[in-house]
């Protein structure tokens, strides 16, 4: 095991830490912008770095389809290929493959599936996923697993968890260990506490550099997710990073941090940037609404992103109405910067013993709202 993780401070279940990789240090709690196909949509890598992001997420499934792992390896790995010299975590591809319900066939060996692009057939197994992620030069490799949607019957989740744990062991055996790189196991079990405990025990026995909490944010709602997070993180080793996959909204993240989670990823800030949505401390703004047409204010007072520093709500409203690409670029930059600033504020609040005050103010501001949308 060559990834080093330090828990620097705790307040209740909340942790402040550092994760050391070959390509740099990740301060936790951390949010990872999603660069599915080797790019964060509408952003240059230099711009993403300027938001404060210390790690990106790439995706095995999408990159294996195009341009292909062999080409990325030939180009010097994903860091060099996309001009990102900081850490990269890659999803194993399992979630995307499992979502292709009409295009795949799952078995103990792995998954046969048809590309959503051109229908070409592929096979993905734990061993193949590890091989692809090695070629991509991912700092954090995720083990191959199956994710079921919630709610699902107990017996369905149980069968899935048992197979995922067998796949986790195969993933660990196939992983090529080297300095500054590591592999994370993925806890599954849906919203069944005993299955979560079973999964965590199996993963601990196998031994990983970090542990993800999978199978949430798949339709269960925030209340149910928090109920699972009330016990799931503490089933995992204290001295390893804990990563909640695919989460989420800012209030999801704050709630999960308070329950002991260290790392997050989600497409929400980038996807929202492409659909006229902006995140602020007072909630989400739809910039296409007519009330912004003559509004001279920035999106968010005190935000240091290029949009808020140089442009008005009226201008970004005009760009959106005109269908200008600049609107998507500026909104995406703002949203990623908002997420990175939120994580920095959480870390500072832990360090200064003001976490409870920060969380109370966060939820108060969110409840207040911006201005009533028209």
What does this structure look like?
By secondary structure, the protein is α/β, with parallel strands linked by helices. The chain contains 15 helices and 16 strands. Strands 4-14-13-12-11-10-6-5 form an 8-stranded parallel β-sheet. The chain has a 3-stranded antiparallel β-sheet with strand order 1-2-3. A 3-stranded antiparallel β-sheet has the order 7-8-9. The relative contact order is 0.13.
Proportion of strand residues: 15-25%
Architecture (CATH level 2) name of the largest domain: Alpha-Beta Barrel
What is the CATH H-level superfamily of the largest domain?
Answer: Queuine tRNA-ribosyltransferase-like
Please identify the structural class as seen in this structure: alpha/beta
CATH topology category name of the largest domain: TIM Barrel
Mean pLDDT: 95
